[in-house]
Amino acid sequence: METKRFRARVNPDLCVGSTMCILEMPDAFRMRADGHAEFVGDALDPDTVRDVAELCPVSAIELINED
Amino acid sequence: MGKINDDLLDPEIVQNPSPYYKVLREEHPCYWNERWRGWVLSRYEDVYGALHSTDMLADRITPFFRHRLSAEEQRRFALTYEVLHSFVVFLDPPRHTHLRRIFSRAFTPKAVSTMRGVVEGYVQEFFANWDGRDVVDLNKDFAYPFPANVIASIIGAPREDVHRFHGWADGLTNLLLAGVGEDQRMDRAQDALVEFKAYLKGLYDERLKQPRDDMMSWLMEVEQNDPTLTEDDVLHSCILLLNAGHETTQDLICNTLTTLLELPDQMDLLRENPQHMKTGIEEGLRFNGPLKGTMRIAGKDMEIAGSRVREGDRLLLLMGAANRDPAKFENPEQFDVTRNPNPHLSFSHGLHFCLGAPLARMEMEIAFNELLRRFPKMHLLSEVKWDPRILGRSIEAPINIALQ
Asked: Which residue among B87, B234, B252, B327 is the one 20 to 30 A from B81 at the CA level?
């Protein structure tokens, strides 16, 4: 069975730059110069994206289905 | 450009800081306050930048103890230093990163949502006690005991002990939020910490024998599996959580409700359109958040808004002034429960974004929905008088409200 792949999107209107996502997945997220995080990684399995999204204190990370 | 008032506790500024903030933003965006002995930042852009800068250090405890206390005082207040210096809010990476990763798991929006039933239960209970009464003291009859009971339940402190940590928290808050007229602040804070820690040690020992389903037991489990964590880390973290978990929410409840009571149009709008509750609470945070400012220490020489800041200088970041900056907010002096987006800085920003923000937001939403539904006729009986604090924005008790 093929697993669906997801990307993450950080909503800049919500992001407070807590860096929790970067601490959790330093290869997938990075901090922009404006103090907001952004997703720069490859597509991930949904559980991984959900886990990191749940750590965000302001729920700024959204899941985007690659398919 | 005129001379700026150095007295951050000037009664006029305390009562209504907005005109002062306007002058600061427009004429002195980064100025050296000789009385406070530090730089004061007031523009949104500068406060935001400082909160996000890795060159701004959160550990203001060590410089205070090393440079402002005598050797004798440093010895006398060693316990205060030890406790405060272990608080995650006063730490910088890498220790901050380590502790934050632990605590953040307990306060994610999802984790906090599991506490909704506890919060709803307390709200119902406290407001049931208001039924039939003509007048209540908002502070004593709800704003203090409600979040204090919630955080005590989460940590695992027995309900009958909640009144005890009110006094301890007061001792600590008067030191941390820079009260006035308190010559013995250090003594009071240390006495409070000694008692607070001894009390929590009792809870800790009980859980060594029999772990429970509460946050202290969970932290103890983390401690057992993490060689960098000690018993003191657990106890000090519980002091911080018990303190921070209710003091700021208490002020947020009082500040937001009194603002709404002074603005009946906004109160009616919110009561008739509860779908605006989330944005209304964010506006309460922006307009009169529980913290006017926070402190940082410059980690290196830098220039801010044309001023040369030296390594080791302390800075007061005025979130209250940033939250009223017209460069960021349209009509910033207008309280608008529908304001959206509302990128206020009241929970801080960056690495030190308030861990308890999801809990505070949920407590506010549940409490205010019920408050507005249940007591449609409530009104203020006295003028709001603000406490003289440099960092905190808190209303003097009592806050008498008529319910009929």
From this structure: B252
